[in-house]
Structures are given as structure tokens and as C-alpha cells.
Amino acid sequence: MKNIRNFCIIAHIDHGKSTLADRLLETTGTTLKGGNDQVLDDMDLERERGITIKSHAIRMDYELDGKKYILNLIDTPGHVDFSYEVSRAIASSEGALLVVDAAQGIQAQTISNLYMALEHDLEIIPILNKIDLPAARPDEVKDQIVDFLGCAREDILEVSAKTGDGIEETLRAIIKLIPPPKEENDAPLQALIFDSVFNQYRGVIAYFRIFQGSIKKGQEVKFFNTNQEYEAIEIGHLKMEYSPAAELTAGEVGYIISGIKTAREVRVGDTITSVKNPTLEIIEGFEEAKPMVYAGVYPIETDEFEELRTALEKLQLNDAALTFQQESSLALGFGFRCGFLGLLHMEIVQERLDREFDMNVITTVPNVNYIVYEKKNEPLEIHNPAELPDVKFIEYIEEPIIEAQIITQAEFLGGIMKLCLDKRGILKKQHHLVGNRVELIFEMPLAEIVFDFYDKLKSVSKGYASFDYQKAGYQRSKLVKLDILLNGEKVDALSSLIHEDFAYSLGKRMTEKLSELIPRHQFDIPIQAAIGAKIIARATIKAFRKDVTSKCYGGDISRKRKLLEKQKKGKKKMKTIGRVNVPQKAFVSVLKLD
Fold first, then answer.
1. Whether residues 403 and 326 fall in one domain
2. Is the pLDDT of residue 46 over 60?
3. Which of 27-36, 96-105, 359-368, 470-479 shows the lowest per-residue confidence on average (mean pLDDT)?
4. In a 10 Å sphere around its CB, with 0-12 CB exposed, 13-18 middle and 19+ buried, how is residue 281 labelled?
5. Which range, 236-240, 339-343, 439-443, 483-487, has the best average confidence (pLDDT)?
6. Are 31 and 55 in a shared domain?
7. How many CB atoms lie within 10 A of CB 87?
8. What is the pLDDT of residue 49?
9. DSSP 8-state code for residue 389
10. Which domain holds residue 326?
11. Given a cut of 60, is residue 297 above it in pLDDT?
12. CA–CA separation, 255 vs 348, rounded Å?
């Protein structure tokens, strides 16, 4: 027990966490030198984008001063949309390496991840990474860290994860500063599931950290929340490959295979205990993920609905922040209403459904959850504009508000302020940090940052602004439901809840875009944007017309008029029975409207 160290790496996106993890693995002999970069990022998607999406656990063996140590590392993502993964890693560790880029300094996500670690009383080791870069400003960034963390300058380790400088010192610091787990071997078994994966041949493999007691191969275990009992068919350590073991004791991190075939039976954050001598309390400090953004996910082929359900269940095992429930739409058929932590999370889930499960899906307009106060009934929480009651019954609507923290350089202040104010933001605080860096705190509606806020922020600041947010409750707002009507019929998949001030411009843009994308039919198609019964914008797709008068060479005008009247009647009849076919491309393009 004295020789076990459990730690995670936390930092802002692109500050070098995965590269540092690579060097630690090489130095401890867990992987071969000169092997693959980003060893722990085993998803193709992670390598292509250069970001960590999943937190990964791995065990390293290291010898120092003649003693053998076991180091359990959990590498974490840096993007704000995956902060849920970080919370799980922090709940399983006793210490954290706080990595700060020597060229970029402290960023928004560094701060929020650090606060999360401090709440769990983790031992923090500050690391200044990328000191080999020509743009590195070690002295200035050290001042920021000292100012922010309150540590001594000599406590900050200088490291270059790329070249391997300072890695040995980092390993010494981990062993010296991070406390070993508490001795709890005699107590009843209590282990936290922090991740799980689905294996086609072996079922669900759950990853856990034991807080007290021990677990043996073949032992009968119980999962607390689901109240299911299983046999521990195989347990072991998480190395580069699964490494089976006969017993795991308190403080260790490992995996369990118990032949579970149903994905729903394993929940991340659940507590494992033994059947014979169960623990009476679950492990505290683990929070359920609260989705920020909702969107409908529908299969392109309607008969693939069940395959989509299976794919989402398997994906939820590996990504516990994803939530979904069944829903149906007149335009798109049967599908699921999914909850995501943000737009990048939504994009990644869509991409993973395509790559890992070969599922082609349509995603509807992302929106947030609103609280509707009706005149007589209880408040109603809605995730979808289609659920909104009739306008005459609504007293008012509240929308979720976030507190956004933006850290940037002083020269980009004007552009960022304008962007936030255009998005209905209210400036709460402006604070000058070390050097020419400024921290801005804005209160903004979550719905405004759901679409393209992050991309625009990067453009305005030339990539030098970092962004983080947390929920700050609800506030009353003037919201209206914008409906799109095709040939007089509402298309529920294109409905959206929007602030009254922006409804007209969005309606106009949507009708114009749809008129370009929907092919012409044999009859005129009016495309209308409406708020309740009031039409606020319209575009018309003209019908294909046959020149019925072409056979009349001169002669009486009444003959031509008769033919045109006959054609007009036919078009009118066709319009009443005709159906408008909306291509999938039109849905996707309208959803991506800027």
C-alpha cells in the first residue's frame, strides 16, 4: 500500500498532457521508446484531431532508491465538453499533475480543472511544460502559477515532454509528494466504477478503483445501484494489455469481467461490493452528468431504429455523459432525444456512431432545456420545441443561464466584448491577470453559445482566448417558438425556440435557404416561417410548368386561356394531395445555418 500512487494529469486543451503521459510510460518501461505518439489516445478520432476524448487509465512499475513503486496514471481530456471525464479521474486519484504550457500560460480550463481537484483535496504538482519552445516564457508563466496556486517558485517543475527533459524529476515528485492510498484492507469491499467498455466476446468490462477491502478472482460481487449480482470471472491490472491477477487490494486500480452482456446493467459512478460482506454506503463525491445541449438523433433509414438504440447503449458505456430517450417526429420518424455536454461532445458522438457502429444519422437543431410556467398548471421542463404548450396557456418561459469565463490578451478585448454583448451577455467582472492578460466573467444564455460561439470566439481572438463555463440557474426571457411550414404543414424537426428579437432574421434566412435546397415539384411550394398564427417570412418554390399553349399557332386568345385555366386547376388539385419531399441535405444544411 505504501508504494502505490494514484494520480491524474489535468490541463487546458493542447498543453501537452498526452505527450507527457507518453514520456512517463517510456521512462517507466511500460512502452518502448520511439513507439507511437499519443499511446493512450487509442481512438482514431483522438489522433486525427489531436485531442483526448476519453480518460485512460494505465499502471506503471517504477523503481526508486531500491524500492518498487506502482503508479496508476489516469490521463484526462482538456476540452470543456469533456470535464465530466476529468471529474471521474479526480474522484479516483490522490494527486494531480497540473500541466501549464510555458508559451500560453494559465488558461480557463486549467483553472476550472484545478478547482475541481482542490475540492477533492488532491495533492497538486505544478508542471511547466514545453520549455524547449522558442516562444516559451518560463519566468512570466511561473509568476502566473505562483500567483494562482500560492506555491513556491522552486516547487514548479520545468519539463519538456517532447524531448524528455525533467521526466525523472516528475516521477520523483509523484512518489515523494503524492500520498499513498489509506490502509483499508480489512473493511468490506468498496470500489468505484470510473469507466467501462464493451467487448464483443467478453461483454462489459468495468474499470474500477478500490477504496477499501479487496476483491478476488471468482468472488461473488454486487453492483450497488442496479442491485445485480455477478461472479468476478477475471480481474486484473490495466497495463498496455489486460494483465490478469488473483487478487486486487485497497488503493489499486483494475478491471473486472463478469460476463455482463447488457450495457444497461453497468453504470459509471456505481459502487462494487461483495455479496457476503457488503458495504452499507456508496462512494460519495461522484456526480451524475447534467446535459447542457439536447438534440434529436434519427436514423436515415427508418428500419435501423433498433440498431441505433443498441449503438447508443454501447456508446453510453464508454461515454457516461451521454443520455438518451426515445421520441418520434412527423418528418423524421422514430429516433432518440439525446443530451450532450456541449457541441463538440455532440459532434464526437455523431462521428463515433458513424465510425464504430456504421450508423448514418440526422441530428436536429441542438437546443437547451427550458422551464415553461403555465397559467394554471405546474412548471413544465421541455427539451424540445415540439413539447411547448399553446401560446395562450403560457405565462412566461425561463431559459438556462451560464457564467462564462474568458481569458484573453488585452488587444482582443473589444472584439470579444462585442461578441458576448451581441449574444445577450452581461459583463459581471473584468480582472487583469499577470502580464497583459485579462479575465472576463459574463452571464449569458446557454442557448446563445450552443451554436457557433466557440468558433467565433477563436476567430475574434486569433485563437488566443480560452473559454470555460458553468451553469448559473434560470432567468425569465422573451422567447418565441419559430415554426417552419412547407405547403401549409408544420415540419416539427425544424421548429426552434428563439429570442423574440432574433426570430425575424432567422425565419427569413431559413426560408431562403430551404427554397434553394428543396427541389421543384409539379406545384408551387410556399415555405413560411411563423410565430403562432402570424407569418413573419415567406419564400416560394415555383412549380415545373409545361408550355401547354405551344401547340396554338396564333388563332383565338380564348383557346389559350382555356388551356391555361385547365392547367391551373390541375396544379391546384395536385397541391392539395401532393407531398413535399425534403432531402436529408436540406435538413443538415438548415441545421448548420450561421
1. no
2. no
3. 27-36
4. exposed
5. 439-443
6. yes
7. 23
8. 56
9. P
10. 293-366
11. yes
12. 26
Give the C-alpha separation, 152 to 19, whole Å: 26
The string of DSSP letters for 74-86 reads EE---SGGGHHHH
Q: Which three cell numbers stand for residue 122?
A: 488532491
Amino acid sitting at position 180: P
What do you get for the CA distance between the two ends of the chain, in Å? 56
Q: Which whole number is the average pLDDT over 273-278?
A: 78
Mean pLDDT of 14-29: 76
DSSP 271-290: EEEESSS--SS---S-PPP-
Q: Is the pTM of this model over 0.70?
A: no
Q: Is the distance from CB of 52 to CB of 77 less than 8 angstroms?
A: yes
Domain CATH number, residue 235: 2.40.30.10
| pLDDT higher than 80, residue 55 | no
pLDDT attached to residue 583 = 64
Pair 124, 138: CB distance under 8 Å? no
**Strand runs labelled E in 43-102:** 56-64, 67-75, 95-101
Report whether pLDDT(536) > 70. yes
At residue 369, what are phi and psi to the nearest 5 degrees? -95, 135
Across residues 192-197, what is the average pLDDT?
78
Beta carbons of 57 and 253 less than 8 angstroms apart: yes
In the DSSP assignment, the letter for residue 514 is H
Asked if residues 494 and 510 have their Cβ atoms less than 8 Å apart, the reply is yes
Residue 186 contacts residue 1 (beta carbons within 8 Å): no
Q: For residue 119, give every residue at least 6 positions away whose Cβ sits within 8 Å of its Cβ, in sequence order, or none.
A: none
Grid cell locating 281: 454506503
Q: 167 and 92: one domain?
A: yes
C-alpha cell at 306: 433498433
- Please report, for the domain that includes residue 353, its CATH number: 3.30.70.870
What b/e string do you get for 449-481 counting C-beta neighbours within 10 Å, with b at 16 or more?
A: bbbebbebbeebbeebbbbbbeeeebeebebbb
Structure confidence at residue 368 as a pLDDT band (50, 70, 90): confident
Identify the CA nearest to 34 among candidates 44, 45, 22, 43.
22
Distance CA 110, CA 126 (A): 11
Q: Average per-residue pLDDT in the chain?
A: 77
CA distances from 493 to 384, 405, 585 (A): 10, 33, 14
Q: What count of residues does the chain have?
A: 594
**Of 223, 224, 247, nearest to 234 (Cα)?**
247
Does any domain span residue 184? no
- What pLDDT sits at residue 119? 76
Q: What is the pLDDT of residue 44?
A: 56
- If you ran DSSP here, which 8-state letter would residue 475 be given? E
Residue keyed to cell 421543384 = 520
> What's residue 440's pLDDT?
87
CATH number at 449 reads: 3.30.70.240
- Determine the 3-state secondary structure of 561 from DSSP: helix
Q: Are residues 33 and 139 in the same domain?
A: yes
Total structural domains within the chain = 5
Q: What is the pLDDT of residues 413-436, one digit of tens each?
A: 888 888 888 888 888 888 887 667
Q: Who has greater pLDDT, 474 or 487?
A: 474
- Do both 36 and 166 map to the same domain? yes
